[in-house]
Amino acid sequence: MKHALRRLRTVAVALGAGTLGLSLLSVPAAEAYSVQPLAPQSQRAPEADQFSAEGVTTVGELRTIDGSLSHAQEGGKQIIRHPGASYVKVHFSSLRLADGEYVTVSSPDGRESYRYDRHLNRATGADYTTDGQAGFWAMSVDGDTAVVTVHSSRSSRTSAATIDRFWRGYDATEIKQHNFTTQSVCSTDARRDVVCYQSSHPNEYAKGRAVARLLISGGGMCTTWRVGNTNRMLTNKHCFSTQSAVSGSEMQFNYQCATCGGSNPGAGTKVSGATLYKVSSGGSSQLDYTLYSVNNFANIQSFGTLYLATTATTTGTRMYVPGHGDGNPKRLSIYEDTQNGATCTVKNANYNTYNISYSCDTSGGNSGSPVLNASHRVIALHHLGGCPSNQGAKAHLIYNEIASLIDNG
Predict the structure, then answer these.
(1) Distance between CA atoms of 62 and 170, rounded to whole angstroms?
(2) Contact 394, 348 (CB under 8 A)
(3) By the 8 A CB rule, do 280 and 237 touch?
């Protein structure tokens, strides 16, 4: 969603990172993570390296660290910990591994684990992102701790890998502090976790599965979704618009709470951006779209897909919006203000040349969300906030420009 430029503030933190060795973390796992790990201190990266994009929710901070992992016996670990972080995304500046050796980046409980060998083969190892500099970014790990492990039978203490940076995700309070937001929740916020509607609105729930959280270059957040039957994704141009940004970003499907009103999202399924296909012309008040593909497409096909409406919608049409406002687990906007009250509708189907308008609740991070009608076709691509006229780019106009690049069903 388009917002004013945000201010950034410096945050002092203590990061834990253990030194690799034969005796490191010899205590049981549960006990190991209950103590503060020994660590060199991380530093906030220069301001120029921090994420900043007009209209995109800033959700993380880039930190630098000097971390070297050796060829130690299996079980040697380095802990990258930033207390209170919502995620940790680790950067390896280099890997020096022999065939059969590998590195894993995992959450302490093992719920998430990503494996990287010397060849960085996405087919046999884990996905990853790149930023045009030396090395690669591991996929993010939800929570405030990433456990990096060298798996090797060699006892040599020569360097096997070097960690030089990581992104740490802001908590909810920090997200508010780092983002100026246009008021886009109109009156009462009627959004609810998608699982709340699994029984009462099974079609809306099912269609929402094709919607993913978009982590942009480690520090920004939007929403994205599958379009058509082939490997194609849509989001806003103002979220990203270059091949390097696509390659540096990850898409997290099925990031949603397991219970209504709970705080228990699963890790979901993460893939990285692959190929940039088309970007709209004009500014962010016009069609504002980016069409691209992902790596490991087979991993996300089970979440389904969405199709664009090919004709204009009409004022008064019932509508709903699934998305990741503020980077939160997926929520659905179905009702205007009160559950089981008035449903969201299109307020003006011709707000201007490019946009429809509505007062269905959205917030920063909802940029790129699909706006669907009662037939579950996408009638708009959400991108502008400001009650009572939140706006979405007209889907049939987007279709006219990308029809040859998608299989719209």
Answers:
(1) 11
(2) no
(3) yes
Q: Count of alpha carbons within 13 Å of 11, Cβ hemisphere only?
A: 23
Q: 73 CB contacts (<8 Å, ≥6 apart)?
A: 22, 152, 153, 155
- pLDDT, tens digit, 9 for 90 and up, residues 88-109: 999 999 999 999 899 999 999 9
Maximum average pLDDT range among 52-56, 69-73, 392-396: 392-396
Measured over the CA atoms of residue 38, residue 35, residue 148 and residue 157, the dihedral's sign is positive
Kind and range of the H or E element at 244? Answer: helix 243-247
pLDDT of residue 36: 39
Q: H/E element holding 319? A: strand 319-323
Cα pseudo-dihedral 28, 141, 193, 234, rounded to 10: -160
DSSP letter assigned to residue 200: T
Strand, coil or helix: what is 142?
Answer: strand
> For residue range 229-243, what is the model confidence (pLDDT) as tens digits?
999 999 999 999 999
Check residue 38 and report its DSSP letter. Answer: P
Predicted confidence (pLDDT) per residue in 2-54, tens digit: 433 333 222 222 222 222 221 222 223 333 333 334 345 789 999 999 999 88
**What is the distance between the alpha carbons of residues 25 and 403, in angstroms, rounded to a whole number?**
55
Q: Residue 62 in 3-state DSSP?
A: strand
- Spatial neighbors of 98 by CB under 8 A, at least 6 apart, are 118, 152, 154
* Distance, CA of 395 to CA of 76 (rounded, Å): 52
Model pTM score: 0.88
More confident position, 269 or 185: 269
DSSP per-residue letters across 324-367: -GGGPSPEEE-BSSSTTSSBPB-SBTTSSSSEEEE-----TT-T
Q: Residue 115: CA atoms inside 13 Å, Cβ hemisphere, count?
A: 10
Phi, psi angle pair for 368, to nearest 5°: 95, -5
Q: Which pLDDT belongs to residue 159?
A: 82
Which among 58, 90, 114 has a CA at the least distance from the CA of 271? 114
Nearest to 375 by CA among 235, 233, 207, 193: 207
Q: Which H or E run contains 194?
A: none
Tokens of 84: 């209170």
